[in-house]
Amino acid sequence: MTQSNIAAPAIRIESASNVVPQSLPKDLGFGRYFTNRMFTQRYSADLGWHDAAIIPYGPLRLDPAAQVFHSGQMVFEGTKAYRRPDGNLNLFRVERNAERFNRSAVRMGMPAVDESLHLHAIAELVRLEHRWVPDQAGASLYIRPVMVSMERTLEVRASLEYLHYIILSPVGPYFATGFQPVSVHVSDAYVRAVRGGTGEAKTPGNYAGSLYATEGARAQGYQQVLWLDAVERRFVDEVGAMNIAFVYEGKHIVTPPLSGSILPGITRDSILRLAPDLGYSVAEDRIDIHAVLRDIEKGTVTEAFTMGTAAVIAPVGRLGYRGKDVVIHGFEAGPVARALYEELTGIQYGRRLDRYGWTRVVHTAESREQVSAK
Ligand SMILES: Cc1ncc(COP(=O)(O)O)c(C=O)c1O
Question: Which atom of ligand 1 is nearest to the CA of 266?
Answer without folding.
Answer: 10
